Amino acid sequence: MILIADSGSTKTDWCYGTETANCKIVQTEGINPFHQSEEKIRSIIHDELLPQLDTPLQRCTAIYFYGAGCLPSKTASITQVLQEYFPNADIFVETDLLGAARALCKDKAGIACILGTGSNSCLYDGEKIIRNIPPLGYILGDEGSGAYLGKRFIGDCLKGQLPEILQHGLQEKLNLTISEILDNVYRRPQANRFLASLTPYIYEHKGMPQVHAFLLDCFGEFFRRNVLLYPQMYPVSFVGSIAWFFHEELEESAHSFHIPLGIFIKSPIDELMHYHLSH
C-alpha cells in the first residue's frame, strides 16, 4: 500500500491504496513544518489521520508527502513523525510545488502554478523543477493567492477603494469589526488562513464591475511578478481552490498578457495517485 499526501496551509488530502480502483481519500488539517512544531504535526497525524485509515499501518510501504513549507531544512519533523507511525514505509517529503507540477504536467514540460491559501509557480522540465520564482509568503508575495486577495480586499474596502456596501457586508454579514480584523491579522496565529477565509465573500460579489477589476489586477500581479519572469514560456496550468473558482478571471488576465494556458484542477491528489501508481 502507498500513502500520498497533498498538504496546503489549510488542509491535507491523503490518498491510500494499492491501485487506482481501491484508493480512498481522507482529509486532515493542513501540515506546514515552517509554521508548526513537531508536536503539532504529531497530533494531526495521530488524532486526525490514523482514525480514518481502515488498514493496518504496517501494510504501508511508501509515503509521498507533498507539502507547503517543505523546504529541505524543514522536512525532518514530518519524516520523523511519519516514520514513527509507518515503520515499514520509505518516506519521501517534497514541496507541494513538485506535487503540483507532477499532477498538472505529468512527464511533459510546462509552467505549474498553485493558487490556494498561498501561491507558487515553477518551470518544470517533465521530471524536475528547473526554476522557481520565490513566492515569499503572504506578507512579501503570494500574489493571486487567497491570503493575498483577502489582504488586498480588506485594505481596499477600509480605505474606500471599493464600494462602501462591501465594507458594510464585512461588518454585518461576516460580523467583522475593524478591531477584530486587526486582531486576526496582527495578533492571532495563522493570519494567512483568516485572510484567505474572506475569498467566498469576494467570490459572491465578483460580478460587480469594481470587484471584477480588482480580481484582474490581483491576478495580473501574479503573472507580472511570477510567470512572466521565466525564461521560457510553456502552457501555464493551475491547481488550487482560488484557481478553480476564479478560473474565468484568471483566463481573462492571462489572455491580456498573451500567456498560453494549460489545465485547471481543483486538487492534485487524484492526479498524483495516477502518477505514482503508473511509475
Characterization of this structure:
By secondary structure, this protein is α/β, with parallel strands linked by helices. The protein contains 13 helices and ten strands. The strands form two sheets. A five-stranded mixed sheet has the order 3-2-1-4-5, with helices on both faces. A five-stranded mixed sheet has the order 8-7-6-9-10, sandwiched between helices. The longest helix has 17 residues, at about 210-225. It is globular and about 60 Å long. The model has no long low-confidence stretch (mean pLDDT about 90).
Strand order of the largest sheet: 3-2-1-4-5
Give the SSE order as H and E letters. Answer: EEEHEHEHEEEHHHHHHHEHHEH
Low-confidence stretches: none
What radius of gyration results from the CA coordinates?
19 Å
Q: What is the terminal-to-terminal distance?
A: 14 Å
Number of helices: 13
What's the count of strands? 10
The coarse silhouette is globular
Summarize the amount of helix as a percent range: 40-55%
Briefly note the structural class of the backbone.
Answer: alpha/beta
Largest sheet: 5 strands, mixed
Strand content: 15-25%
Mean pLDDT, as a whole number? 92
